[in-house]
Amino acid sequence: MTTSGRTVPETEPPAPSGGDDAPAVLRYTAFSTDPAGGNLAGVVLDASRLDEARMLAIAAEVGYSETAFVTAADGRTLDVRYFSPKAEVAFCGHATVAAAVATAERTGPGDLLFRTRAGEVPVTVEAGPDGILRATLTSVEPHTEPVADAVLTEALAALRWPAGDLDPAFPPRIAYAGNRHLVLAAADRARLADLDYDYDRLTALMTSLDLTTVQLVWRESAAVYHVRDPFPVGGVVEDPATGAAALAFGAYLRELGPVPAHLTLHQGEDLGRPGVLHVELRPGDTRVRVSGAAVAIG
Q: What share of the chain is helix, strand, coil (3-state, %, to 5)?
């Protein structure tokens, strides 16, 4: 997909260069059991000798929306940093799923603890009846905040969406569950499918608000949603499956009122990389959980 000259990688790029001391970069797709679906993530399981500049360079060369770097490990507790091709991000859901599955393939399923810039993220990896590993991660404490009228006006202008194309049942909010996401709901599926935004204008707005993605959603039913996530601040047009935004969206829905305990989010269909994210809202627990499969590619 290309917008304003920026291209989302749809095939596996070459391995990063760097000589014999270059770290091994594993490649996974998350929130799909099909290597052709979901969201691609790089994983470096031993990044203890890498500084920030080297991690950013590797992430840029890999070209995926994020690469996870395990900078230290103490048993099943991992210190993890995440880099997009343009910058470090505090937390990334799909790269967490990928890194957790990559770790479990080597040490066995079970509980892990990821220590991230956003906080501690518990992760449980289990093998399904099909033998595919699936990871469930628990958010940091989430919250939402209102959106100023001027911000909404600028966001709609950058997206090239008329205000009348919004679903009035879902008020615009900024939702947080490790990263900040602007949540906007489309009134129909056709509006969501027609994504052609002003890359530079949306980047400027997102940078001013410290947003990681814009979470665009359409409600199919009370428990099923279709979502898209522009991610220009990370250097890609659109993220195919966004675990961090799914967590934030779960928190957003819960604050609106009664919501099913289990939600299904479909993402990536309009990019030709379909993925499925399962969101869980447990009674009495303010944190949100998202789960999905991950499989190695290449």
A: 25, 35, 40
